[in-house]
Design a protein that fits this description.
Blueprint: E1 3-6, H1 12-20, E2 24-27, H2 40-49, E3 53-56, H3 59-68, E4 75-78, H4 84-96, E5 105-108, H5 111-116, E6 118-119, H6 129-137, E7 141-142
Parallel strand pairs: 1-2, 1-3, 3-4, 4-5
Antiparallel strand pairs: 6-7
Helix pairs in contact: 1-4
Length: 147
Amino acid sequence: MARFYADEQFPLPVVELLRTLGHDVLTVQEAGNAERGIPDEEVLAFATSQERSILTINRDDFIRLHRRNSNHFGIIVCTNNRNWQQFAARINQAVTAEESLQGKLIRVVRPSRLKRFCWNRANLRHLSVLSRSLLQKSNRIPIEQII
């Protein structure tokens, strides 16, 4: 199972559920790093030094860090989901599907957003080259590949 480092905003009920699923989860609070205003770069560096993947709902900052340097043990960016069991199950599903999390960025999105989330021409900067070519043929394409 995976070794995680849950950042300060990550929901503790999800941490507990991931532990029941067999994952080794260390929280910022347990590591003694809570409420210290530690920059995200240092949070990632700590996780890397401990050979742990980051669990975060701070998507933008950690996606940016991954793009700058993918030398880490994994970053799992999540959309906050108040259905804790579903949240933990989706993370578990995403990480167990991977042989290794090292150097990977995994996005876990709550299902309700998938049902109503479609890319349109205004979102082109977020799409891959393949998706862009498909988008030229259609104004709206549902994105179903996100976990």
